[in-house]
What does this fold into?
Amino acid sequence: MMEMTAPGSITRIMLHVLYALIPGIIAYVIFFGWGVVINIIIAVITALTVEVVMLLLRKRPIKPYIMDGSAVVTAVLLALALPNLAPWWLIFIGVSFAIIVGKHLYGGLGYNPFNPAMIGYALLLISFPLEMTIWLQPDNTLSFAQSLNYALFSTLNNIDIDAMTMATTLDTVKTQSGLGQSFAAIQASAPAVFGQFAGKGWEWINLAFLLGGLWLLYRRVISWQIPVAFIGSIFIMSLLFYPFTETSPIYHLFGGATMLCAFFIATDPVTASTTPTGRLIYAAGIGVFAYIIRMWGGYPDGIAFGVLLMNMAAPTIDYYTRPKAFGEST
Amino acid sequence: MKEYALILVSTVLVNNFVLVKFLGLCPFMGVSRKLETATGMALATTFVLTLSSICSYLADTYLLAPLGIEYLRTITFILIIAGVVQFTEMFIRKTSPLLYQVLGIFLPLITTNCAVLGVALLNVQKTEYGFVESALFGFGASVGFSLVLILFAAMRERINAADVPTPFKGTSIALITAGLMSMAFMGFAGLIKG
It folds into this structure.
């Protein structure tokens, strides 16, 4: 468990996680422009401010808790999940809720039952569905200044926002197949959202996150059970329903937030199950729920809800999978 | 077969009585301090809910409807639920005195669990439901209740050990947790059309 290790090692883990996110962020910028960087900047500033205020209110020493970097990781993960054309207040509300309710009301890092970043994301998705589904299309020509202008003032002087935004790949496929279209027909009618083997841009972002995740595994920052069980269950679910949904396992593994979740979100050691068997069940459960909500639910992607649902189940899973103490009867 | 599965998925997850319809919150908050008591309460409520929704369906179809006195539904169902709870109490007292002691006051309190009456009333409002559908509706509702009650109890045991700020200790943080759980269950919205 995290809270049992020295503060310095938490900082080390969080720094590794941030390093491992860099390839994904670079891929994101290449395909979707500077929006994500602005998201990250606003989110990190909000997170640090809210963290300091909460520590003051709770009369805790500020420096060691700020330096552990957990607030920054929460902020960056949430910023990566948000649309790349988000107004500042959206990020502010999401990050504040994540840090205050998701983390500090439970006593801070190590005690929070829910993944704070996903709590913030779910709150925003439920409360502001419109703002949460405005995505810039890949290969847009928006400059850093224009993105910043939108984030601060919600306007793109003289540029038609509708011309630059579109539904994400997952969203397009869900809406169109809901109207009875076959996957091939959707691909033909909306070529702009499809890339080489999955969603345009998304496939490379997912590959980059996979790369960062493998590095985390190699550095033993995260354990193998969660990524393997999560990716495995997404693969098996999508293979099982391939004949009905016409969407291939590759499309699901490299679409949406799959790889980000597999290595960076589901692997949060505080909110995941703590036993090795429990971790397998926990991550497989996220995969199953995420797939079901992604394919048939009312929201474009199911990762956040899958994570929260299994966060809920993690204490129960731990209870039933904990190793027996020596001499303990059944 | 498919519609039966849909009723179960709908009542257990999509329209969960506690987290989506906000019924049965008193036992949800009251009996979730310990995992063992929560499990006992979950089993007792499952039994009562299933049986009472069957009984109330039968009473409605073969007694109230033919006589044209549907306006007596609420009071009839309360009577049926009280009877079923009394029966369960006697049954548990005989079979498991330990569980009887552990559940204590909460066992008779199933009578006033609004989810039990809510399920019975919602059940007869769905005119397309026959006997099997009504039984499944009650069973699914109670499985949904049991599921979230047990998960919640395990979470509360962990939260009790946490360094929660003083104003939020106890019931406040439990209610906040219930709210966040409800948020997670909103992910199921739209899974079943209609």
Q: What stands out?
A: Residues 7-32 of chain A form the longest helix (26 residues). DSSP finds 17 helices and two strands in chain A. Residues 292 and 302 of chain A are 7 Å apart (CA to CA).
